[in-house]
Amino acid sequence: MKCSVFIATSADGFIAKKDGSVDWLHTAGKPDADLGDDADMGFKPFMASIDCMIMGRKCMEMIHSMQLTEQQWPYGDTRIIVLSNTLTQLPAFPGKVELYSGDIKVLLKNLENQGHTHYVDGGTTIQGFINLELINQMTITRAPILLGEGIALFGKTKKDIRLEKCSAKRFKCSAKSLANDFIQEVFSVNYD
Amino acid sequence: MKCSVFIATSADGFIAKKDGSVDWLHTAGKPDADLGDDADMGFKPFMASIDCMIMGRKCMEMIHSMQLTEQQWPYGDTRIIVLSNTLTQLPAFPGKVELYSGDIKVLLKNLENQGHTHYVDGGTTIQGFINLELINQMTITRAPILLGEGIALFGKTKKDIRLEKCSAKRFKCSAKSLANDFIQEVFSVNYD
């Protein structure tokens, strides 16, 4: 069972402003920087490494508010499961999006039995997954901006949690371009 | 006028636990890793690049609680100014430690006139300095641990603040040793 996180935050650790907006993410740093093969900052290679995505209701609603066309849908054919204890049906979405309410560990066990080997969660649901000791690896892309307040990626934990195999990089730019000033950190989580 | 920050945080952005303790900083990651010339994670080269240090009262009290001997004093002969509007005298300290209460911009102007060209601030006072647009460069060393709660490095800002010239690295280790899993980020602050 392996759950990964791939998410962007501000340098002070927020995934969105208080109102849920992420516009700042698209204007932070140097959006016009030529990153060559890294233009998507690792998103496509990451998506290719997973075959199921689990997200919280708020994350889904944020994506829905973008009113993406099927062509703009960023998750390809990846199976997507939206966690909600309040929704009874999902807004119209392109692709394979399912609703789930219930025990997270049961869901993950079922996914494992169905042959899924790698899952990813996006949004504040991550905090719950960390406290269930279900996140094994995190890729955090830090945008070069301080927001001061907003929706934090991390929240309270039941105990101190050790991180391992940490690495960090900025994205290389072409000779003609400056870097975009985003930093990407990768680490494993050790709950022992 | 150039003010720099050189500080360690947890991966979730805390500089200390709620009670002010920083014990976790000394046990996070792999404290026994052989980092060679980077054993102090850049502290000495950084201190050599500055000639005056400004810190808040809480930061000074935390250092005082360590009951360091003159031999253990980490700041050498660097001039240290402690900001406090409540203290009238400082606890006994080795080295050159001064107390200041009053306007920060006046202090910095005086320091500049005295020939100081580079200052550093440690502790939560950083938040006030950022809102006065006085921090130009930050080096943040992220310990591989999630604390869940504590005293945050960053706080509310008057506006979004852009970061530039961002870089990140993990510390190289010798062939015989694993990395210590700390990550160091450096960036400039642009208040425009």
Outline the secondary-structure elements.
Two copies of one chain form a homodimer.
Chain A: E1 3-10, E2 14-16, H1 23-27, H2 43-48, E3 52-56, H3 57-65, E4 79-83, E5 97-100, H4 104-113, E6 119-122, H5 125-131, E7 137-143, E8 145-146, E9 151-152, E10 161-170, E11 183-190
Parallel strand pairs in A: 1-6, 1-7, 3-4, 3-6, 4-5
Antiparallel strand pairs in A: 2-9, 7-11, 10-11
Question: Can you describe this structure?
Answer:
2 copies of one chain form a homodimer. With 192 residues, the first copy, chain A, is an alpha/beta fold. In chain A, 19% of the residues lie in helices and 30% in strands. Chain A has 5 helices and 11 strands. The first copy, chain A, has helices spanning 23-27, 43-48, 57-65, 104-113, 125-131; strands at 3-10, 14-16, 52-56, 79-83, 97-100, 119-122, 137-143, 145-146, 151-152, 161-170, 183-190. In chain A, the strands form 2 sheets. An 8-stranded mixed β-sheet of chain A has the order 5-4-3-6-1-7-11-10. A two-stranded antiparallel sheet of chain A has the order 2-9. The longest helix of chain A is centred in the middle third of the chain and has 10 residues, at 104-113. Chain A is globular. In chain A, 34% of the residues are buried. The mean pLDDT of chain A is 88. Strand 10 of chain A pairs antiparallel with strand 8 of chain B, so a sheet runs across the interface.
Largest interface: A-B, 38 and 38 residues
How many strands appear in the DSSP assignment of chain A? 11
Helix content of chain A: 10-25%
For the biggest sheet of chain A, the summary is: 8 strands, mixed
- Beginning-to-end CA distance, first to last residue of chain A: 16 Å
**Global mean pLDDT of chain A:** 88
User: Pairing-aware structural class of the strands and helices of chain A?
Assistant: alpha/beta
H and E string of chain A: EEHHEHEEHEHEEEEE
The rough form of chain A would be described as: globular
Looking across the biggest beta sheet of chain A, what order are the strands in? 5-4-3-6-1-7-11-10
Q: Please indicate the percent range of residues of chain A in DSSP E strands (runs of 2 or more).
A: 25-35%
Quaternary state of the chains: homodimer
Regions with little confidence, pLDDT below 50 for 5+ residues of chain A? none
- So how many helices of chain A? 5
